[in-house]
Structure of Ribonuclease PH:
Amino acid sequence: MRPSKRAADELRAVTLERGVSKHAEGSCLVKFGDTHVLCTASLEERVPPWLRGQNRGWVTAEYGMLPRSTGDRMRREASAGKQSGRTLEIQRLIGRSLRAVVDLKALGEKQITVDCDVIQADGGTRTAAITGSWVALHDCLAWMKARDMFAGEVLLDHVAAVSCGIHEGEAVLDLDYAEDSAAETDANFVITGKGGIVEIQATAEGVPFSEDEFQSLLGLARQGVARLIDLQKMSIL
């Protein structure tokens, strides 16, 4: 039995609440159980210097954890003067995941930045951030389209992410912190609505995992992402 009493293929309770920020062009408060992340998408009428004159846009992300998002207060990275390697890795992952389903040429010379602020952490902050960021991005693009800021379709597909792992010898879906901290294998999967794999991060914490175990994790991830994408679709109706 899992610590949360969930079935092996059961997600935590997931909610996607749109329009939670008064000022952002798109926003979503995503909850994967006790992991809560605020995602806001902001439009900027510019692109990075290295993209100027190429007639295409850019989608990027920033990620951070509030000081009391965890059991003990963390020092703000801004006060430390630099971002941690973990923060940089996660925000690059979020950006890559979103760009995988965006037509940057159709966007034109504009940049959308999605800020992901972890309010409360209980495992799976990066997967929750990716899933909620898609909703915030969708609403930002809808805001732009209503103002005739681009022609055609910019958003090509859904994208969502979920964690899987091997806990006490069993492949399980959507790990919370209690499982994540004790898992023999921990993996994150980013998958599109059409089933394309954007990224897989998988690590054995002790004994290496087998190819059969990996296939079990991938199968669980596909099921989980399919459910998350269904929730995304319901949230934007």
About this structure: The domain at 14-236 is CATH 3.30.230.70 (Ribosomal Protein S5; domain 2).
